[in-house]
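ESCALATION

Customer reports they have been waiting on this structure for their group meeting. Please prioritize. Original submission:
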Amino acid sequence: MTTPSSPAVDPRLVTALSAECDSIGRQLRHMGQNLSILQTQLASTTVPAPAPVVPAPVASVPVVPIVPVQPMQPVRPQQSVPAWQPPTYPVAAPRQPWWQRDGVISRLLAAAGVAVTLIGVVMLLVLAAQAGLFGPPLRVLGGALLSGALVFAGVRVHGRPGGTVGAIALAATGFAGMYLDVVAASVLYGWVTTPLAVVIAFGIAAAGVALAVKWDSESLALMIVLGAAVLAPVLTSGISLTLIGFLFAIQSATFSAQLGRDWKYLGMARTVPVVLALLVAIASESIFSESGNSAVQLVISAGVVAIVGAGCAMAVQWTGSPSRDGVAGAWSTATFVVSTLPLMSVGAVLGRTESAVLYGIVAVLLLSAGASAKPLPTQLRFGLGATGALALLLCCFSGATESLIVPLILTVGMIFLGISLYAGSRFVFALGTAFVAIGSIGYLTTVPPEALTTARAASMQLGAITALSSLTAIGALVMLVWAIHRLKLIADSNAAVLWAAAGFGVLYAVTCALVSSGVEIFDSATGFVVGHSVATIVWMLAATSALVLGLNNRQHARVLLGAGLALTSAAVAKLFLFDLATLSGLVRSVAFLVVGLLLLLVGTRYARAFAKQEQVSSASTS
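Update from on-call: job pushed to the front of the queue and completed.
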């Protein structure tokens, strides 16, 4: 029996399979390296790594020719890209109550201590004098020693940790007490003449503000100024020229602290006390009519306060100053305006002629300064111009008679509007508009519609002056609308609406001018009739002009035609409802004839225009 032999094995097949297995192993190793690199990249970008891929089991490998396999190059790791992070917003810290904030309680206590101590000094100087206690030398010397000791203590405390608030309060109390001590020595005891006492008070205030500058503390300067200014009237027994002198010393002595510093409130604090004192003194002089010398002194004092206010504002806001713009500049300009209030009020203690001359000079100076002082910021120049315009308005009220005030104000308004057209300045336009508005209100008061209803009312209220006022009102309205149009304050599409609205005001003024002229030229009855008849014809002429312009101007046709038809209706209604019942004779006939002819002219012109339009339309369709 024979044994079966094993089948023969092809050695080439074994070699091929071995080579392919070796190649697959190398590829799997490279794939594992690349997967490791990819996993590192994904981990750096905080993206969850994918689940590991398990290679599928290899099935039967077909017999293929041996192909040399190139080894795979390792993939270079890419630069990691930072992951997107959602924006974070700062979380507001819980707001602390005001009494828990740093320094609030200490500042309140310090301010209260300043006030109470200064009141005690005043009580020592006044009440002790009334009760005859201690004697004048001891009272004055005690106040001076106490004030000096407070200043010395403030200087010593300032250099210590946490001693700023207390040092400011002590120094402010000391300087204000010295100031009040000098006032008492001059006013209560007469030891020092008033001019010399004012000079000494000036030096004390300047020394206190110098210390505030050294410490860079506006609070110290404010406490010195307000403490001295508020309690000084107690020592002078009310408002007087002596008190005004001492308050003026505060205003002028503390000005230098604002130069080169962004101190906002010191200017107003040093100016308001002397301004209020002057206003009260002017009101008292106007009501009780005291001596003429007092009125002159008040005028001089008001002028000096205004000059100092203007000079300080210019110096503070000159080119290069930190207080030139922003809030500090606005406060400086407001301080200047406040300083001019007494000067604008002194007309109450002067005659009409003196007031007109004074206000005229002030207006010229302020308007010239506002127009020519180019280095000054715009806001201060506006302040100068506005106060100058106010002085000019007061000059008109003081210098003109009651009947000429309205035309004079309207004329000034036209001048301002003309300047605004020449210079292209909207601020000057605003000033002119203000004058025109005030003049228009005065015009409607002097020439009310009731004056045009009957001949008796017209003869009592109308005349040559009202005719002049009407002419100036017409010029002012036309100039106002022209300035609005030229300065591009409204769109061109709305220009017709503006002109139409102004046209009705102009027609009212024209009617008043015609009736006033008729009453002035003829007697009251005849002039009234002639004026109204001519006014009706003028109304119809204006309506005809508006309708014709509406036909020729397609852009503003709707507004012009609407205004023309409204005027036509008004003219016809006036003709039948008023003229027919009021006018008589030939004048009424002429009015009816002219209005009728104008209506026929307008109707014919409209018929021709629409016929031409229909011809054009039919030609285009054919």
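Sent to customer with the following note: The chain has a mean pLDDT of 78.
Escalation resolved.
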